[in-house]
Amino acid sequence: MSTLDGIDLRILRLLSENARRPYSEIGERVDLSAPAVSDRVSKLQDHGIIRRFTLDIDRSQLREGTPVLATLSMAPGAVEGVRDALSGVEGVENVFTTAGSRVVLTAHAPTTDVGGWLFEHVDPEAVRDLDVELLTGSDRTARIGGEAAFSVSCVLCENEVGADGVSRRIDGELKQFCCSSCEQLYVEKYETLAEGAD
């Protein structure tokens, strides 16, 4: 799968509206059988287009902390580590990184001392500045635009994988290559590294 066709995009749009929509209902809308829809969804998952099915909770209906938007301006090289650390913290809902070395997150902080709570999980020395705002509402939209396109990059050289690309499962994970030469080089490097790890 190096391109998405119109049916794939329609399936993505229908799932983005309601991820629990039955495949039989999706099939009626895109003129496919439920098993054919299931196969396409499985391929979209295998290729990493659908990463997971999530639950959108209206947290205003629950009593669980203070809803905040926090922006952390980071020291050079600290963005990825802080993002990873905060992604696993209970109460943190979304973590974003920017090209300007910032980590932005939404959370339901268990305390009004949001800075103290965040610094329990990240090194304060890595943070240059912290801005916290109280959230009064949020709305999440995961719609697929009409002009969406799909582009796979080769895991070795990062060139675009065209129609003549190669797919291969390595340790259960699907890898995409632009050509058989890249596939061979990647497999050789992978096997060398795997032997060195033993």
Largest sheet: 4 strands, antiparallel
Supply the CATH class of the largest domain. Answer: Alpha Beta
What's the number of domains? 3
Name the average pLDDT.
82
Strand tally, please? 6
Q: Given the structure, what is the number of helices?
A: 6
Question: What are its keywords?
Answer:
two-stranded antiparallel sheet, alpha+beta, Arc Repressor Mutant, subunit A, flat, 33% helix, four-stranded antiparallel sheet, Ribosomal Protein L24e, Chain: T, 198 residues
Describe the structure.
α2 crosses α3. It contains six helices and six strands, in the order αααβαββαβββα. It starts with 5 loop residues before the first helix and ends with a helix. The relative contact order is 0.13. 33% of the residues lie in helices and 21% in strands. It folds into three domains: 1-53, Winged helix-like DNA-binding domain superfamily/Winged helix DNA-binding domain (Arc Repressor Mutant, subunit A, Orthogonal Bundle), CATH 1.10.10.10; 61-134, Alpha-Beta Plaits, CATH 3.30.70.100; 151-198, Ribosomal Protein L24e, Chain: T. A four-stranded antiparallel beta sheet has the order 2-3-1-4. A two-stranded antiparallel sheet has the order 5-6. It is flat and about 55 Å long. By secondary structure, it is an alpha+beta fold.
